Amino acid sequence: MHREDKSFCLFCDTKLSLKLSQFADFENMSEHHSPVRLSFGQLTFDSISHELSSATETLRLEPQSCQLLLLLIDAEQGQLSRTQITERLKISDSTLTKSLSSLRKAFAQLDPDTVYIETLPKVGYRLCQTLTPQVTAPAEPASAHQPSAVATVPPVQPAATPPAPQQNVSIKTTLLLAVLWTAPLLFFVLWFFITLAPAPEQLPTPYINPPVVISSEQGIEYDLSLSKDGATLVYLSRDPEKTQLLLQQNRTKPRLLAEDKALSGAAISPDGLQLLWVKQSSQRCIVEWLHLEKPQQRQTVAQCGTDAQVKIAWQNDSQGFYLRDRADNTQPYALSRYQFATATQAQVTRPLHAESPEGELAFAESDDGKTLAVVRDLPNQHSAVVLLDSSSFAVIKQKILPFRAGSIDWLANNLVLSNDAELLQYNTTTDELEFLFYTGRTVQSLAVVNQQIYYTDYAQDADIWQHDLNTDKARIRIGSSKVDRRPQVNHQGDLAFLSQRNGKEQIWLQPAGQNEYQLADLPGVPAVVRLQWSPDGESLIFSKDGALWQLIVASGQSRVLVAPDKQVDVANWMEDGSGIIYSSKQSGDWQLWQLDLATAVSTQLTRQGGYSGYLHGSVLYFTKYEQQGLFVLDPAQGEERLLIAGFDKNNGHSWRFADDSIYYYQPGQGIRQYQLLHKTDHLLLSTPQGFVSDYDVQNQQLFYVKAAMPKGDLYKLEPVTEKTK
């Protein structure tokens, strides 16, 4: 029976979609056979272990992604609609979007040059690579001298029965001969119907054509913008030595407009005649305007924040521009509009921090100039598309997205959005969200002209370094091709950190003198968290989605210490391990609370603001969310005083208290040490090249994160036409 099944599957026509039902017998094979593995493209999928493998790498799929892949493999006519998938898997539409994204990322990581999941416009999805079963040869039976490595349950012995009559043997022989005679006929019938069966309807993805490389210089290209006719393209290019502003007209060689490390953003006007750029330093930030025919005659048109990621975009009529800015890093980003004719700047949006922690993420005005689309940050890694009337700024429509959208631009009456490495289309009339293209790397910016999508992508890795303060020598402690960050070291030298090696933030551990390994997945929605070791070095705490968690390292199990309704953010252990000092907004503003682990009771410590604190003896050392400086409070006396005036408020998550010293980062200088005993403050380490303000100090060893130079290129994506089909 098994031989016949294998012959049937090996002679299946590749035009037909392979069904899991065709492999049912394989998954129920005897103990001498291996489970079914499916090959498609350059990859292999093991439906038992849920592993997707290339020749050099193996990924274990998440349960939801694995179920989706199995469903696509077993799809009728090789395709499924979104409704069919959500109903069969009993999931929401947003969960389907996440599962599709996760599955596509797995395929792209293992085989970036091949498309595996095809979007059928108005139809659904299908696997677009030929499926082939793999079955290994039967295993040799274990001999009496070679016992099986896997213990098996002894089979149940049937009751004694009389010997079978001799005539049964002849019946079996007759049936076997019948099968052998009819097998060729059955194969011919199957071949006849398979070759005559029509192939599934070919409905190509609108942007299935490979992207065209526009620029691939060393470093990264970013912040691209286009004139309305697509003839003029402007973008920034940065490498370790310089930052350049480049202009390309009518596909000619790009020419240099400016070279200045202070340039942080630029945009060409829709009429292709004017230019705006942002110049930003630690001292000032300005937006300058110039005409391309007279580039030396510049004019400052707006001021901006020095610690903000300022973004600009032109109005459709080239008579003004939109500016994304914030007062300081404690406020969400808001949007304003500047009109050249009146030299006035009007507020467009005013997001509240409680409702939108970061505020406006991206924005673009429609081609007819009547509608302004704004992408707004929401809690739990969600975002919202808000459509505003460009004249009155009144809200026309709002759409909640189950992901944190990045860049945005208009494609006729629809919107093109980026979600990490995905490009999606949002139909503003029907509210439908449709997948367009997978770029393979995170999209940094995009612009759409005449259905052609231009985009810049980027990829970055970050390593964890260890600096010996006694010898003043540094070495890489953790290095990979992904982002490794947030190092935390216990007194035994065990290093815990966050890593994106599997496409999402996970907690990893490198015990002293050993190799690193994945310790645990983060609960809830994807996000970056802050870790801290317990004084005994046996557990980690972190805040996530408003809750305070404890992770037991030995078992890898987590538990909630403080419920999410308390809105916990920064948490630090007490020196004796009896409790935890954490910040919370449960009283309406950021204050510090003390959790007693024995009683699970929390007590409020501060009344005038507190964001990150350590309790040393009976004295509380702490920062405030919206105020510079490091403060000291004796809870018994109730009076606070300023200890370090120049303490930057951005240290909220990163400063450390250890060995009667305070370690903190001072922008423009480096990591400093304040010794409580001598009341001295000195520079410990100048800011390393590529330094990210993630660090820890333990036993005269300083651990910090260095990010490599981002890599990214500029591409053009053209829709499928009759000529390109």
Automatic annotation (TrEMBL):
The protein, known as: HTH domain-containing protein
All residue ranges annotated as the OmpR/PhoB-type domain in the record: 35-129
Range of residues in the leader sequence: none
PANTHER family per UniProt: PROTEIN TOLB, PROTEIN TOLB HOMOLOG
Membrane-spanning parts: 175-194
SMART domains registered for this protein in UniProt: Trans_reg_C (SM00862)
Single GO MF annotation: DNA binding
InterPro entries registered for this protein in UniProt: 6-blade_b-propeller_TolB-like, OmpR/PhoB-type_DNA-bd, Sig_transdc_resp-reg_C-effctor, WH-like_DNA-bd_sf
Domain of life of the native organism: Bacteria
Keywords attached to this entry: DNA-binding, Membrane, Transmembrane, Transmembrane helix
DNA-binding region: 35-129
GO biological process: phosphorelay signal transduction system; regulation of DNA-templated transcription
